[in-house]
Specification:
This protein is of the alpha/beta class. It is 44% helix and 17% strand. Helix 7 crosses helix 10. It is globular and about 55 Å long.
C-alpha cells in the first residue's frame, strides 16, 4: 500500500485527516498533515469586472448574481440544485449562472427549458481568462455537494471564488468541513444540500445585508491568502508544516 511506503501524507482538510486515520489505523498520525489545493492569487487589479459579460448572458446588473462554476455530475447533487432553481424562479431580483459541463449538463438544460426558468442560465465551460473575468461581475459563489456523501470532499472551485473576493454559499453533506471553514473565516454561509429552505435563507441574508456581504467578500480573499496559496503549500511540502 502506498500509505505504508510514504514518508508524509497530505490531506485537503482536517475532515480528510480524521477520515483517513479512522479508516486506516495502521497509519502513523505523525506522517499525516493538511496540504490543500492552492493557487497563485490574481493581483487585485489585473482582472477587471466586465459588465459586457452581463449583457452577453442576459444577467440583470441590479440582481443578486449567483454563480456556480465547475463539474456538473452526480457528486454535485444536481437534483438539489434544480430544486433551488425552481424555488428561486419567482425571484426576478436573483439570477443564477451555471458554468460547466459533466454528465448532468443535459439534465439541467432540459429542466431550465421545460420549467421555463428565466432567471438562470447554463453555459458550457469557458476559457479560464473569460471565467475569471466573469467571476468578478458576480456577487456570490455557489458550492453544491450531494448530501449523501460519507467521505469528505473539498471542491477546488472554492479557490477561484475566494480569489475573486466572492462570498460563498456552501450547500454540502454533513461530513465535509468546507462549509465550516467558510463559516469560521466569515467568508459566507453554509447549509445542508437537502434543505432548500435553509439555502433560501442564505440567499436572503446575502441579498439584504449589504454590510455582511461586503465583509464576507473581504474575508473570502483573506481566507485564500491565509490558507490556499502556492507558497504555503510549498512550505508545507518542504518543511512539513
Amino acid at each position: 500500500m502506498l500509505y505504508a511506503v510514504s514518508d508524509r501524507i497530505g490531506c485537503m482538510s482536517q475532515a480528510n485527516v480524521k477520515y483517513l486515520l479512522a479508516h486506516n489505523p495502521e497509519i502513523s498520525q505523525e506522517k499525516v498533515h493538511i496540504n490543500p489545493n492552492s493557487i497563485r492569487p490574481t493581483p487585485a487589479d489585473s482582472i477587471q469586472p466586465n459588465k459586457e459579460l452581463l449583457k452577453k448572458y442576459g444577467i440583470p446588473e441590479s440582481s443578486l448574481k449567483l454563480i456556480y462554476g465547475g463539474n456538473l455530475g452526480k457528486p454535485q447533487g444536481i437534483d438539489f440544485m434544480l430544486d433551488v432553481l425552481k424555488a428561486l424562479s419567482s425571484q426576478k431580483d436573483v439570477f443564477t449562472l451555471i458554468v460547466g459541463d459533466g454528465t448532468e449538463y443535459n439534465k439541467i438544460a432540459h429542466f431550465l427549458e421545460v420549467e421555463k426558468i428565466s432567471n438562470a442560465r447554463l453555459v458550457k465551460s469557458l476559457p479560464k481568462d473569460q471565467y475569471l473575468a466573469l467571476l468578478r461581475t458576480m456577487d456570490v459563489g455557489l458550492i453544491f455537494l450531494d448530501h449523501r456523501f460519507t467521505i469528505p470532499n473539498f471542491p477546488s472551485r472554492l479557490l477561484d471564488y475566494l480569489d475573486a473576493s466572492l462570498p460563498v454559499i456552501a450547500a454540502t453533506d454533513p461530513v465535509t468541513d468546507v462549509g465550516a471553514i467558510v463559516l469560521k473565516a466569515g467568508a459566507g454561509l453554509s447549509c445542508r444540500s437537502n434543505n432548500v429552505h435553509a439555502f433560501l435563507q442564505c440567499i436572503s441574508k446575502l441579498q439584504n445585508d449589504f454590510d455582511f456581504r461586503n465583509k464576507a467578500g473581504e474575508a473570502s480573499r483573506k481566507l485564500l491568502i491565509d490558507q490556499f496559496i502556492v507558497m504555503k503549500s510549498a512550505d508545507i511540502i518542504i518543511n512539513g508544516q
